[in-house]
Amino acid sequence: MTAVDERTTGETPQLEVGAARHRKEDQRLITGRTRWTDNMSLPGMLHMAMVRSPFAHARISSVDVDEAKRSPGVVAVITGSDLADVQGTLPNVWTITPEQKTPAHPSIAVDTVRFAGEIVACVVARTPAAARDAVELVDVDYDELPVVLDTVEALKDETLIHPDIGTNQSAHLVMDHQTESSVGDVDAVIEAARTDGIVFERRYEQQRLIPSFMEPRSMICDPTGEQTVLWSSTQIPHILRVLLAMSLGIPESKLRVIAPDVGGGFGGKLQVTPEEFITVLVARRLGKPCKYTETRSESLMAAHHGRAQHQKITLAARKDGTVTGLKAELIADMGAYLSLLGGGTPKLGAFMFNGIYKFDAYRFDLRTVFTNTAWTDAYRGAGRPEATFAIERIMDDFAHELGMDPLELRAKNWITHEEFPFTSVAGLEYDSGNYEAATAKAKELFGYDELRREQERRRADNDQVQLGIGVSTFTEMCGLAPSRTLGALAYAAGGWEHASIRMLPTGTVEVVTGVTPHGQGHETAWSQIVADRLGVPFENVEVLHGDTQIAHKGLDTYGSRSLVVGGIAVVKAVEKVIEKATVVAAHMLEASPGDIEFAEGRFSVRGTDQSKTLAEVAWAAFDAHDLPDGVEPSLDADAAFDPDTFSYPHGTHLCAVDVDTETGEVTIAKYVCVDDIGKVINPMIVEGQVHGGLVQGISQALFEEAVYDESGTLVTGSFVDYLVPSAPDLPHLTTDRTETPATTNELGVKGVGEAGTIASTPAVVNAVVDALRPWGVDDVPMPCSPHRVWQAVQGRSVGERTVTQPVNPETMQTDGSSGQLPTGDATGGDDR
Amino acid sequence: MSVKPWRRRVGEFMSRISVTVDGVSYQDDVEPRTLLVHYLREQLGKTGTVVGCDTSNCGACTVHLDGRSVKSCSLLAVQTDGHEVTTIEGLSTDGELHPMQKAFHENHALQCGFCTPGMIMQSIDFVQDNPSPSDEEVRHGLEGNLCRCTGYQNIVKAVQAAASATAAGTEGGAR
Ligand code: FES
Ligand code: FES
To answer: If you take atom 4 of ligand 2, which residue's CA is the nearest one?
Structure first.
């Protein structure tokens, strides 16, 4: 049985890069021969279960573990006070302002719990069932404290979540940008527009989401060897190892971290978790391997959430629609603690609120705030979906205000293809792009003009089912990241990536990569790259990853970085192998290295028919009987690659929805996207990434929201209530591409993992709002459920134009001097 | 406020079951409360079948009981006494992939692969009843199975491809 495909090899060798190779990694996954962490068992392994707080904010007055300890099969019950001296604090690696407040975050709460789901004790037993049974026997006494769940409320500092820091605000970050042609800073530009232009103001709400990877988090720690080994369903084994060492005081050389098969992440497994710390501490304390696997309910409650941001956007423009400035004021909910990236996630949006547009002045103003909710961090797109949503929503709203076609307004303001490379108002140099081409292709595939006519017809007929058309023309920065840039942004680590190539004596190849795939198909794509460059068959390339003992250096997988950083590191390592092999081949062929050329796996002496295959050279390096003096007996090579810049995929997404104005039901009638992600290694994998990304973005627009009740209990605590869409909820997607190669890396590639998610949410919401424009509706808060859509329709009668209120507008209006969002003066376009 | 321990006594007696799983017959003592999925994973080592939720929503644990799909987290092990269970691990015979497995591979219907065992088992059951399904019908047939990675489009394609391969009389068929 084999999942390796036969490939027709004709006279001319076909290039692997660009071919829709079926994936190498499928074989084990379709036959159930998987290595999910929870599948593994070690000799003598014990099982852990967590006692979690049912309260969102409480003092722990006592924890009685006696009865649990007596329960059959229970080996130990560990509380916060047992670990208080050794557990340290979970790390936050992004101090977004020098003044940022970063409260301590113990893995097991010692005296206070700050969100429902926080761990207060851990039971260790012979079987998972015995551990779970004993959890029920741990008797915890809580004194409940007042709960604060909303960030605006939290900013009043009436209830402090971390009294030791004296405030609920973690940081206030302001970044001001203006170009030379600007009339001044963004306030001056807005003032100028008030007199002879348009000022347009909107508030949007990014609801709280739950990443909902399908494999619940699982971890096993084996402390019995010289190195303590941690298997974890993580996206970041390398980062985890460094931070475990630094936080727990275990020498890094004594730690090995392995990410075996990992069932999805989407940013949700880009975390250093209390569960991992506890597993390591408990296993080392007991001297036995210990396993913890969360239930789905625990995952929804305590694995980090995403988005959760209030946005106030002010756009200044000339009357002809030329945008002159933009101000983004944000309040981002951190939850109860600062997570690994913490405020860094919304900060990543700082460079993207300007999108693909040219204007002269821009301010990004971000407050990060604690509440009694689950901590938040990266979720697919991390900062960029929030930014893209805001700019693309406001461009649609603004187009409507001007009575202009939304694509026309965009074209008026976007960077034209002749203008690349282009330095954005936020200071990033976009290397390449062609927004015109992607848009033209998308319009054609979509049948834009016909659909607009159809929309007119339904409006004229007062059809119960109205048609809405939504647009999103996005770009994003991905491929995290140039280390210097990260340093300048006060992120604690770099953004390089590492790879090595091991040339085996028999001519097959091992590629070691520092990135850590969990569904992205890197084993296949990396094999394609290496097969072409070394001229070896695709099948003869093995890609190794995810184990710090094998892939000893790396910075893992997130931020659409794997190919654009990790893939380039592979290319660099290949180049070194060829360089080394050239010297050996020259010696074998009795020629000078300068006369050797390498192509299709063969070293030949220029102008002759003498040659050696790479396999022959690999063997010569292995037997080492006759190597040139001073040449090491190895062709293996390592490379670390640090990008000079980000990569900037872009695209045009068009969405048509049918909105039933009686029932509020929204159905996506058509979704077309044309993405430009530069050169493509494997179009099949790319299409899969786009599909999955689109659906997560569509799902934010229409289905998903993490909801707490007023006591801070997660209401959407299971898959019954948290709506991860299933197949019938979703439309058929039409995806296509334009190809403008990136000029900043050798493969010409850009990232693709997050693009679909970033672009699709505003396209869908714009479509829903567009359908309801005749009712005077200009916003529907996400998710645009039938109930909300229906309410939006009910709240307005046809023909009467009203200003749409954002979610919770009152709560956002506070005194500007008190360190809170300034009052939104209704001016210009907002005041209609 | 105090959260009182919930006292209960479990595991005090065991039940003996006889069940055939992937062609092998087993006789085992199980706790009456043991779910089929836990019996498969923990007692038989059939870790190809996975657990994705605790509310029977995700379908990741789907297996066949006497040839029809069931969510193995919603069935007790004792309920399979005298029955036959097929898991993802028992699908391919003599080194030949089942047409549905092949179709998933060829149509890139999986990314992380965590939902895949359940998706494949459910899809096989579905095409037994509907050998040439439309896009819409496939989507409804897979309603109880969640996938977070693929957006379902390629899964739909794979199911249709496997169905037509089977209908075209290609060897295999729904086993
Ligand atoms: S584990 Fe989710 S349905 Fe069975
Ligand atoms: S492939 Fe990852 S959940 Fe379906």
So the answer is: B147
